């Protein structure tokens, strides 16, 4: 098969136009094009009102050998050649997933996977597919029960610290927009495996080819259940409401530390020589336990800021002009960045078109914002985090050592709780007032979506001064890119502190913790992923590291 990229057609092109473009690119007759499938579809909206669709297609033609010869394309190499029209042609790359190992028939101990977010799910799934019968331990509840607890905070102001937006089956990404793109380098095409497994579990098929796929919350819930069933059918086991509170570590005669199992909150101990830590960024107690047990943990940069809400129609018009509302475009998104005079960078993060702002705390007495949407993305507001990058040097006033970033988060989350009135409402301010430095008293044209509610006031005391100054500078700069972005009535809600993990649980090239053999830090909590897709990819990578180590130990025994 041949892959053609960069086929550009107007947004409303007739279906036949794509076929004609393929035929023209390859210089073949129309009846020599046996079949084609769209591998990727994106759009270029830089010229509003003249939006262009960009396709990559995989093509079957009996002329393939001729074309390869004419373009001097090596039959084996995965490289591009320029066709007559200047566009690109290559052999379709093989992106199918190949397992690296099969479990030996006799395994002394089963691998343990701690956490069932996207990372733990993929560690568990791939290990199960290779026959390793993993046991997944998840502190939260199964996804349906977890949904009730999550809504308990949003509707009744009751937080369950073990079952919420961060903790439970499916992990942090379950109540989300389900955006599935990432800028990670992925030479082994693991992202393709993640997408294929999601489609198998019930995700819309278009996620396999649109350039910025998303799933939305409702679908994610049933997909996670389907993936659980698959893992169990392959001999894996999942235990909910099982929190890992401690590690069993032994040091051998050469002074090398080895993990030997875990202790659960019930006091039960499970023996294992392979323990994957796929904890997510909010497992603060578990990070503290790892640090106390001497596992190598270091502080890492992350970002803090607010959620901003605008009418979705404003974003659609700014991005798509007269073509706003076109079904192929959907609700518009944006990505913005501004480098500030005080040396900070402010950027938009986790943008949720047509979505809602959600309460994302996992500890009592704290307020944290995030965003989610349904597949339809048809709520009236667009929301995104507007955050300022911070580094370990900024953590010093809050504590010492690798966990100081967590103390910074706790401090400002508690401040937000207090400013919101002490009942899980979030503090908020209109953008116009924020820019002028005066408290807000009344909502304008934008009604905030955050539940249980937003208490208007002054957001200046809700974050460090440098972050407030940076965001004040960035909003008018963003308005130059999206007209209306700094509109008076847009609503800011605070605080957004869980943008990524405040720590890295550093691992070596072989996937083991730097100083504890058999412990495999993975996913977002360990600092190796920053979203659903990249967490899934890291899960696959980690499953492979575990499988290869288990096989080599059995072989060496
Ligand atoms: P997590 O998903 O956080 O999973 C970790 C799991 O470990 C949790 O279920 C937790 O309960 C469990 N755990 C922790 N400690 C223990 C312990 N001691 N014992 C047992 N279990 C434990 N990303 C995107 O790419 N697109 C989006 O649209 C998107 N939207 C988001 C919206 C919201 C509201 C949130 C909160 C996040 C969103 N994200 C999104 C980020 C994304 O969810 C995370 O990047 C991703 O879930 C990280 O995966 P993970 O498996 O590494 O960790």
From TrEMBL:
Q: Which domain of life is it from?
A: Bacteria
The record's listing under Pfam families reads: Amino_oxidase, FAD-depend_C
Q: Report the residue ranges that make up the FAD-dependent protein C-terminal domain in this protein.
A: 301-499
Residues forming the Amine oxidase domain are 222-283
Xref: InterPro entries: Amino_oxidase, FAD-binding_protein, FAD-depend_C, FAD/NAD-bd_sf
**Where does the secretion signal sit in this chain?**
none
Q: Which residues cross the membrane?
A: none
- PANTHER family the UniProt entry points to: FAD/NAD(P)-BINDING OXIDOREDUCTASE, FAD_NAD(P)-BINDING OXIDOREDUCTASE FAMILY PROTEIN
What name is this protein filed under?
NAD(P)/FAD-dependent oxidoreductase
> The organism's lineage?
Bacteria, Pseudomonadati, Pseudomonadota, Gammaproteobacteria, Lysobacterales
């Amino acid at each position: 098969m041949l892959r053609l990229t960069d086929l550009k057609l107007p947004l409303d092109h007739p279906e036949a136009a794509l076929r004609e473009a393929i035929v023209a690119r390859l210089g073949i007759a129309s009846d020599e094009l046996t079949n084609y499938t769209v591998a990727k579809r994106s759009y270029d909206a830089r010229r509003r009102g003249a939006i262009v669709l960009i396709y990559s297609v995989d093509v079957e033609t009996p002329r393939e050998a001729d074309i390869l010869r004419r373009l001097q394309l090596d039959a084996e190499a995965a490289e591009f050649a320029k066709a007559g029209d200047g566009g690109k042609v290559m052999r379709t790359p093989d992106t199918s997933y190949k397992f690296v190992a099969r479990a030996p028939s006799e395994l002394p101990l089963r691998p343990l996977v701690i956490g069932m977010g996207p990372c733990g799910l993929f560690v568990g799934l791939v290990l199960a597919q290779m026959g390793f019968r993993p046991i997944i331990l998840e502190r939260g509840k199964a996804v349906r029960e977890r949904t009730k607890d999550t809504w308990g905070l949003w509707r009744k102001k009751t937080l369950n610290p073990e079952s919420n937006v961060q903790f439970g089956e499916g992990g942090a990404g379950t109540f989300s927009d389900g955006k599935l793109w990432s800028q990670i380098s992925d030479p082994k095409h693991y992202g393709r495996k993640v997408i294929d497994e999601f489609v198998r579990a019930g995700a819309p098929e278009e996620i396999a080819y649109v350039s910025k796929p998303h799933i939305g919350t409702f679908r994610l819930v049933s997909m996670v259940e389907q993936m659980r069933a698959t893992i169990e059918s392959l001999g894996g086991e999942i235990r909910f409401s099982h929190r890992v509170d401690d590690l069993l570590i032994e040091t051998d005669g050469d002074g090398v530390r080895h993990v030997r199992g875990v202790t659960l909150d019930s006091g039960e101990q499970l023996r294992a020589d392979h323990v994957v830590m796929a904890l997510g960024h909010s497992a603060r107690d578990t990070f503290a336990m790892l640090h106390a047990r001497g596992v190598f943990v270091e502080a890492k940069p992350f970002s803090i800021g607010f959620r901003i809400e605008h009418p979705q129609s404003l974003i659609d018009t700014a991005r798509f002009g007269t073509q706003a509302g076109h079904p192929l475009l959907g609700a518009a998104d944006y990505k913005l960045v501004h480098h500030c005079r005080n040396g900070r960078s402010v950027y938009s993060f986790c943008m949720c078109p047509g979505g809602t702002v959600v309460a994302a705390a996992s500890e009592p007495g704290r307020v944290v914002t995030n965003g989610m949407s349904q597949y339809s993305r048809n709520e009236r507001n667009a929301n995104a985090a507007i955050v300022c990058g911070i580094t370990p040097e900024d953590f010093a006033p809050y504590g010492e050592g690798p966990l100081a970033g967590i103390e910074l988060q706790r401090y400002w989350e508690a401040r937000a709780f207090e400013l919101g009135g002490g009942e899980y409402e979030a503090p908020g301010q209109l953008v116009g007032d924020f820019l002028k430095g005066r408290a807000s008293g009344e909502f304008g044209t934008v009604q905030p979506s955050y539940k249980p509610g937003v208490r208007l006031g002054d957001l200046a005391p809700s974050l460090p001064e440098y972050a407030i100054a940076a965001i004040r500078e960035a909003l008018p700069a963003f308005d130059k890119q999206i007209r209306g972005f700094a509109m008076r009535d847009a609503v800011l809600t605070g605080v957004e502190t869980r943008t990524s993990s405040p720590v890295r649980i550093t691992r070596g090239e072989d996937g083991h913790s730097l100083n504890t053999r058999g412990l495999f830090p993975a996913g977002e909590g360990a600092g190796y992923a920053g979203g659903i897709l990249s967490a899934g990819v890291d899960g696959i990578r980690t499953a492979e590291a575990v499988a290869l180590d288990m096989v080599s130990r059995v072989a060496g025994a």
